[in-house]
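Need tokens for this chain, all 605 residues.
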Amino acid sequence: MALLRSSIKGARFLPYSITWPRSSARVAAACVNPRPGFSSFPVCSIAMEVGTCKDSLSKCLWNRSRKQAMFALYHPFVVALAAGTLKIEAFRHYIAQDAFFLQAFAKAYGLAFQNADDDHAKLSISKLQRDVYEELQLHASVAEAWGVNVTEESNPDAATEMYTNFLLTTAASLTKDVGSATLLEKRKQAAFTIGAMVPCMRLYAFLGHVIAKNVITNDIHFLYQGWVDTYSSENFEASASQIEQLLDNLALSLSDADIKNLERLYFQALAFEVEFFSARPHLQSTYIPFIKKQESCDYHYLFISDFDSTCSIADSCPALAEVSITTAIEKEQEHRGEPSQLHVFSSKLRKQWELLEKSYASDCNNLLEKIIPTKAGGPCQPYDCGGLRVALESLSQFEVQANLKVVQAGVLRGLDIEEVENAGSHMALQGGCGDLLKRLLVDSNVELHVISVCWSKTFVQSSLLNGGIPFINVVANELEFVGGLSTGDIVQVVETPLDKEKMFDAILESTKKSRTKQVKTIFIGDSVTDLLCLLKADIGIVVGSSSTLRRVTDAFGIKLIPLYRSVLECEIALSKNLQGVTLSGGVLFTATDWYEIHAFLLGPP
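Here are the structure tokens for all 605 residues:
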């Protein structure tokens, strides 16, 4: 069993503790790209999305925009601004171009107002348009303070012109025929216009919020505090929420085909936002994207990841348990009408899994109470490497015994290897994981490995293969198969945190021998089993929100630093010609998801 991969919250390997992601696979297969140049955004029909997203349309669209939102947040221009190291000339250029954009934004609101068909929508649009005029006044005062005369010193550059033309073309589609247009046509056009405007508002609210949480002002006069204050304010969040609500209301009468067109406009607008940042002159070197920026250095990167609930959307144990029970039920159906013990086997098997789960959760919680210090000082206390290792040695012994119980119970006996492969192929990967791994695979300067305590290497490989990642070294346990059927035994390779550390060391040593460049290690994990590897790596990144992991890190003085804050610290250090953040022992980074890791390491394609 994998140590606390699910943080002991509910069933850990009970068959009904996860939902099989077959519908997700169908949705993914139904996605199409909106147009050349905007391939990062899948556009699916609303019929597909309704079944997979329980939120409002605007929230669903934003949730599906996570990759581009992270590309914007980790854009070198935005990072330099957030770190306070952005050159003044670059900010002046940005302010001037943003003023041109806001003028078009205000005009688009006016066109949307003409097409809105009810007083409530018109009232909302008027309020939002006034907010833009207020923002333009703020820009004028900021521009004056920075010595920028928008009308005299600047013209819209190519990126600004493309974005504003897209916005105004979308908003003005019905202008010539507005008198003869039906109410439904006008309402649809208003929805399209607002749909093309929402991404700007939501993205800037997102950027402002994240930057405000991570901004570092202790040792410098932060030049761009006013910008951060504006877009992290409650007033701006209220405006972003208001335009999203307006979009949701306007879209209620749209057909599936119209929703699809609206989605396309939304994602195009968000792509224009990222391009808007890319068009700004940086006038300086930056720390990110990390691997791209280090290409000139003499480094080879060893990228290693955990699998269960790190790469995959769920733990593999429930899926393998489901295979065993499904196999038993199929055998019962084959012998229906015959006197056989098979008729009661599946129900007994299910109860065995339930008992194993209950026993594992109870015993593991009891063990944690014994080995974790009750008076932990939290991350402010000194890193206790020795104490952590002693605790993990006890947990490792527990894991070995837990796996032995599974083998002795015989619950994994009689599984067809093809069924295991099929179960693995239905285990979807976390959002953004597959995209990053595929990009890393084609980078000759990066070597990829997965180290997993999963019971079946076949399962892991099938999941990765289905995600479009066929060529990656997987180190994991395997079910013992004879004649294509499992015997119930597990060929043990990686069962514990100590085993993972040994495999990490072996891979690193082998890589060093085969490479002439200096090897830098990156490890991605989500649980206590990953701690030793995370701490040993040059960059250890924790994904997910395991409460047990945080309980352990607090107990032994391990510091968890948000990845974005560390990037800002490195950016500041770079501006001072320093080497960057020097990590002492017991420091790890936290990322919200794979999209953030992707943006940090590689940035947009």
